[in-house]
Amino acid sequence: MYSSEIQSLLKQEDIEVGDRVNVNGFEGVLMPKPDKSSTETVILKLDSGYNLGLEPEELELLEKKEQEEVEKTDIPYSEDKPDILVLHTGGTIASRVSYEEGGVKPAFDPEDLVEMYPELTEICNVHSEVIAQMLSEDMEPGHWRDIAEKIDSVKDSYDGIIIGHGTDTLGYTGAALNFMLQNIDTGVLLVGSQRSSDRPSSDAAINLYSAAKFLTETEFNGIGVCMHETSDDSTCTVLPGSKARKMHTSRRDAFKSVNREALGSVNYEEDTVEFEDTRRDAEYVKNLDIDSNVGFIKVRPGMTVEEIDFLIEQDYNGVIIEGTGLGHMPVNSFDSKTEHHEKILEKVEELAENCLVVMTSQCINGRIDMDVYDAGLKIKDAGVIEAKDMHPELAYVKLMWSLGNSESLEQAEQLFTKDIGGEVTERSLYHE
Ligand code: ASP
Question: Which atom of ligand 1 is nearest to the CA of 194?
Fold first, then answer.
């Protein structure tokens, strides 16, 4: 609580927590006082999303906070419009600022969606269901299975499905759905937002609208991701679900496709859609099995033998190595500082005896090629296989899925290296 002095000042101006105010020339929303902040300051949430502590020399009320709607809007329905189902799993896209707690928290039920994004109802009948309420950093492989199960059970009743998802691990879920719902005969787009919907710079509404537009105006079937293409509000891009990766912590155009072109785009300003259907004709296969007993290690200067020992002790069925460059790790000993590198190689060989060990690259873009340098050849000889043009997180999810659907490591290797849904190619085009 604010000090009694500040409280009486706020009372005098009829200002409450949640109201929009001007403090010493700074505009924002008045937040509650965090336990550790100074008793002399009030906390403002600026439109940029940052909180600022200010001594209230000049205080002015700009706008009272919105009162909770008691009556929810009836969702309009039209026989002539396509039906789009929005499944919420949580994340910023399903969140708004909590004035009580000072942070961003999930707060939507289905009708809220229509109230928040009325544009959606102009192009489709919106149906919505909350299937989880979590920030995506808390997602577990078991949640991917629940989402896939839900999509499978409802896909024939809708013209398209949007999955509202936190952006942090959205790429992992995209990859998992790509394998679990192979060649799905419905369009499914994962949509997140980098800024919550109550901030003026929010990307939530445009990402959602663009996803619905794409699903209703194209023949797209499959798993994709729809997010801002540029940092302004002009276009959204639709990326292949398995190849989309969050490449920036805060920009609205954070998602890029790794080693593959976008599937299409939506020009929000002109309200147009671009899509070229290149999908192959193949049968829908639902396969939700997954083996999450998979480890992950990042190569870097200073690696120790004990780290590989630890992986061996864990009894993993699969391990992803996020190597350097074309797929390397320190395996050459030539002076006192590198003496342990040969031992690392020996340990990797031991690890690969009972576990499928896959080399990926921290370069993210590009293809693994362990035939170029001596180090790569040695690691390959030790039993490590190449992830080809799959980036580390995609390879991690695919390894879990491949192991979950195999009786042996050989079978898992065959599944892992094969293309399931456009996530791996045998050749890469050279991009400057
Ligand atoms: N940490 C959040 C999440 O991934 C961020 C977001 O929602 O975009 O759920």
Answer: 8
